[in-house]
Write a structure and sequence with these properties.
globular, 25 strands, 32 helices, six-stranded mixed β-sheet, about 900 residues
Length: about 900
């Protein structure tokens, strides 16, 4: 458990940490093995916190899908959660929830991956699950019939994303006739023809230890872990593997794509076939993409020149080939063809003139630095090793970095000339589409006739029962050192030596809806954009070069950050402070951004996303509520640079700021640098009010926002609560919400909306509790003809929480979930810092998760039932539907 550090202990801790950090960062211990059945095992020890991640990578994806069934591998990924011999779906759901509910899976062209992140003491359970799932599958026709509805909703969800549709069109154009011409998603018609027997055949063919890579990362004993893996997986027999489909690529035919998007802005793109992971040119292509995306590049310069809203170059590599595309954004009323020509000219100039040697060096340094920062996340590290070995075919992530370090300017120029062939490119324009005004729709009710099935007690396997029986408040591994500078700035330092990095995160408490003067809406957006133009001492290009010279990444604003290696920490902090405290705010840039922002708002305020968000707030809050304020083209056009400077002076204050420093540094060193560069920062006048005022209970309503780009409805149901975050009932409501929607497979909403009915692919619920007001949300997406039924189930389940006491085993499962989430929420540097800053923003103690866990542990089913009865109003939901009109 974390305890406040007293002044007396502060200096003792400083000396202790200084001694601990005197040596090098913890070296990652990597243990490799190949079991007799062909299973490849890699164990990477990372003692950041007592957490472990397992990643099972099956070397099969959409490339191996049978003809006419492109989503076969994806469907099998889903069915791995529908049960296996020796482990039912209910058992799996219960176990994953009680381990903290942190799991995921994905299917790509060449791999299907399954991830579990668990407290280190539960690693044995995660390994048992994966061993059982490698041994066999159920894949019955009955189970597939139950899951098919959910996966078809996922298809509808992705097909409602214009950018995804664009990507699939590129695959079809560049890789026609090869396994790469489609991704792993699949289609409704093919899923309707898929059978359980076909899925079982696919599993029996490809799911084998000799076609898999098991990665384990975290605070583990490599020797003991390998011994356990051998005992659980060693007896699984290998299988003969069939030949894989050959990738034969034909010539690229140039083409033009013109698509619609529901975004408030448009996008142009020029796409190319690029080298794949297997190509010796791949490393140079990565550096080329980084150079083209640099904020010092000619492509990015389209942004400060006022010709684009954003610009960059992205890679989407596959094993034998890949995609690369230059992109640039434009306001809804801009000339897209003119911008497309600008992008084309930049690429032609790059091929003709070559790339800058300085930008190549900077790109390589950033790649090396980014690789070091990957060690700061346990699950991220497991993903990195899985990507390197299972997807890219390398021995470790270091292989790619070593190849990048060998890249020369000549390599980059050669690759640019060879692959950026305008005559073999596919250009595209995604144009914003106005879909219509919101319209009132019929209520979200309709009576839901589905019989409520009582929670069934799930008997767990013996290997899980004892381990999951532990129900205690975990001890946090974090011991932040907190101090306050004379100017009011709060500093939080958490020493970590897991990598040779230092991360800085900052937050200035603010609320633009409360702090923006009437008639100046949008001033905060302009200020945010202007921070990228450097400081009063370094212009935009000079500032970015200074960052590139030390391989650092930095951002300024009300949320600011710095990621830098320890040797360059002082220079990095100096640059961050210079940008944050002395932003350049150049008038020329202001004029360009004001014009761009006003033009962008012309499309944004008509976009379905904006209209849906405003409709939700309009249904929840009074017409005069500050949250309903928003920028318009008129308000932005009327702004002056002095308005921006006035807003900066009022919002950017040290007594409203908190800085978190995490990494290979002592509290004393961190405080010295922060005092040196932020210590003179001052503030005038009293602190501003930043908390939104209380609001009354909302009235029920339902509104549909037409969105022609979607085939599926996106649904939000919400209501206001008079609850404050400090109310004792907050914990009972939050625990009850975890029963409803906090653990995915094991929650009531998931079971009722997906598991039993197949109405949705995803559903989530959230209690957003503030100092003066709270809002409860339920979000899901489904076909238009399923909205009414799904909404009725949500209302029914909320009502049941008021009338029916949570079953004891469900309550214990949920308590286990929230208690085990504590170490999981500290499994990366970003999560640790984010947690600190979130608690600061809500005026909570830094060890609030532990205090909350102590309260959750004591709650009863009666407490939850009473809290839901007191605060929730199931019949008073505001429902906003974005997409086709419900049927």
């Amino acid at each position: 458990m974390k305890r406040p550090v007293t002044k007396l202990l502060f200096f003792v801790l400083i000396m202790f940490v200084a001694i601990a950090l005197a040596g090098p960062a913890h070296a990652q211990e990597v243990r490799r093995a190949m079991l007799s059945n062909g299973l490849r095992v890699v164990i990477v020890r990372n003692p950041l916190v007592p957490v472990a991640t397992t990643a099972v990578n099956y070397l099969v994806g959409s490339d191996e899908a049978p003809d006419g069934f492109p989503g076969m591998a994806h469907a099998q990924e889903h069915m791995m959660f529908r049960g296996n011999p020796g482990l039912s779906a209910d058992q799996l759901a219960r176990i994953t929830a009680e381990m903290g509910g942190n799991f995921s899976a994905d299917t790509q062209q060449s791999v299907t991956q399954y991830f579990f992140t668990v407290p280190a003491e539960d690693l044995d359970i995660a390994l048992h699950i994966e061993a059982i799932r490698m041994k066999g599958i159920l894949d019955s026709q009955k189970l597939w019939a139950e899951e098919r509805g959910a996966i078809e909703q996922e298809v509808a969800q992705d097909l409602s994303n214009p950018e995804y549709v664009f990507y699939t069109r590129l695959l079809k154009s560049f890789f026609a006739g090869s396994p790469y011409e489609h991704d792993a998603l699949g289609s409704r018609p093919s899923f309707d023809k898929t059978t359980g027997a076909m899925l079982r055949k696919f599993y029996n063919t490809w799911y084998a230890p000799n076609n898999a890579v098991l990665i384990v990362c975290g605070d583990v004993d490599p020797s003991a872990t390998l011994k356990k893996i051998k005992s659980l997986f060693g007896g699984i027999p290998a299988k003969p593997l069939p030949a894989r489909p050959e990738v034969k690529l034909g010539p690229v035919q140039p083409a033009s794509l013109r698509l619609k998007t529901d975004r408030s802005y448009g996008m142009v793109s020029i796409a190319f076939r690029m080298p794949g992971y297997d190509s010796p040119d791949y490393a140079a292509s990565v550096v080329l993409a980084d150079v083209l995306s640099s904020e010092r590049s000619d492509l990015f310069s389209l942004v400060p020149e006022g010709k684009a809203l954003f610009a960059g170059f992205e890679l989407a590599p596959l094993r034998k080939s890949g995609l690369g595309y230059a992109i640039a954004g434009f306001p809804s009323d801009a000339d897209s063809e003119k911008l497309l020509a600008e992008v084309r000219n930049v690429l032609l100039a790059t091929i003709k003139n070559g790339v800058s040697a300085d930008l190549v060096s900077a790109a390589k340094l950033h790649e090396v630095t980014d690789a070091e920062f990957e060690k700061n996340s346990i699950s991220g590290l497991a993903s990195s090793w899985s990507q390197a070995i299972a997807v890219e075919g390398r021995e470790s992530p270091d292989d790619a970095i070593q190849a990048i370090q060998k890249v020369t300017v000549e390599d980059v120029n050669r690759v640019a000339a060879q692959y950026l062939r305008i005559g073999q490119a596919i250009d595209a324009v995604l144009t914003p589409e106005v879909s219509g005004k919101p319209v009132s729709s019929k209520g979200f009710g309709g009576k839901e006739e589905t019989t409520i099935t009582p929670s069934i007690h799930v008997t767990l396997p013996g290997w899980a029962t004892k381990a999951l029986a532990r129900l205690s408040v975990p001890v946090s591994s974090l011991h932040p050192v907190v101090s306050t500078l004379p100017n009011g700035l709060r500093l939080i330092v958490q020493p970590e030596s897991i990598s040779n990095t230092i991360s800085v995160y900052g937050l200035i408490k603010n609320n633009s809806q409360m702090q923006t003067p009437e008639g100046r809406e949008g001033v905060d957006s302009l200020l945010k954009q202007l921070f990228s133009y450097g400081s009063t001492s370094l212009d935009r290009i000079q500032f970015q070069k200074a960052l590139d010279d030390i391989g650092a990444t930095e951002s300024a604003g009300t949320n600011f950050s710095l990621k830098v290696l320890p040797d360059h920490f002082e220079r990095g902090i100096q640059l961050l402070a210079d940008n944050e405290l002395h932003p350049a705010l150049p008038e020329n840039a202001f004029n360009i951004l004001r014009t761009q922002t006003a033009a962008s708002l012309q499309g944004e305020i008509k976009s379905p996303r904006f209209l849906a968000n405003q409709a939700l707030k309009g249904g929840l809050f009074p017409k005069t509520d500050p949250s309903l304020r928003h920028a318009t083209p008129q308000s932005v056009s009327a702004l002056t640079l002095e308005n921006v400077k006035d807003y900066y002076s009022g919002v950017f204050r040290p007594d409203m700021a908190t800085i978190v420093v995490i990494g290979k540094i002592t509290p004393e060193e961190a405080q010295s640098m922060i005092v040196k560069y932020f210590g003179e920062w001052g503030a005038k006048g009293p602190k501003p009010a930043t908390d939104l005022p209380p609001v009354p209970d909302n009235k029920p309503s339902s509104l549909t926002v037409p969105d022609a780009s979607r085939v599926q409805d996106d649904v939000t149901m919400a209501q206001t609560l008079l609850l404050k975050r400090t109310d004792p009932d907050y914990y009972a409501l939050e625990l009850g919400n975890k029963v409803l929607g906090g653990a995915f497979y094991a929650t009531k909403l998931y079971q009722d909306l997906r598991e039993k009915t197949g109405l949705v692919y995803f559903v989530d619920s959230q209690l957003d509790a503030g100092k003066q007001r709270s809002v409860y949300f339920v979000v899901f997406a489904c076909d238009p003809d399923k909205v009414s039924r799904a909404s009725a189930i949500v209302v029914r389940d909320l009502g049941q929480m008021q009338k029916t006491r949570v079953a004891e085993d469900q309550l214990e499962q949920t308590k286990a979930l929230v208690l085990r989430k504590i170490p999981l929420s500290e499994s990366s540097i970003d999560q640790i810092a984010g947690g600190f800053l979130d608690r600061v923003a809500h005026d909570l103690p830094l060890d609030e998760p532990v205090h909350a866990a102590e309260k959750y542990e004591k709650l009863t089913g009666v407490d939850i039932e009473q809290a839901f009865s007191k605060w929730m109003r199931p019949d008073d939901m505001v429902q906003i539907i974005r997409g086709p009109a419900p049927q």
